[in-house]
Design brief:
Strand order of the largest sheet: 4-3-2-5
Structural class: mainly beta
CATH topology: paralog of FGE (formylglycine-generating enzyme)
Number of strands: 6
Order of helices and strands: EHEHEEEE
Number of domains: 1
Distance between the termini: 11 Å
Number of helices: 2
CATH architecture: Alpha-Beta Complex
Length: 137
Amino acid sequence: TKKYRLPREAEWEYAARGGTSSQFYWGDKIDNNYVWYFGTSDYKTHPVGLKKPNPFGLYDILGNVWEWVEDWFANDYYKTSPVQNPKGPETGRFRVKRGGSQANLISHIKSHTRYRALPDKRHHINGFRIAFSPDNF
């Protein structure tokens, strides 16, 4: 059976970085050709694909909307988590969002930026990206 789900936080960051180690997947300096943020968006969510993709071919993984991930939030989790394939806390009050949105300053639109929110919070700056798990995952 096919399993579609929210990505885990570590999976999301791996995908967002696109094989790079810079602040943004395109480098360390802002480039408006890649991202919707407060300085470029007119405070509107935009259709996916109008900006350039990351090296993995993913569009709008930074900016435009915060993306929910599967993990529960713990402020210090990554200080003690496994280096390989961390899965996040099993419970919590808040879930993790990644990537920043069109309403944020560029300082919130980096591959490593994470934020917490109540999982039932609905807002036009929140969205999600689907991950696919093969049968042997």
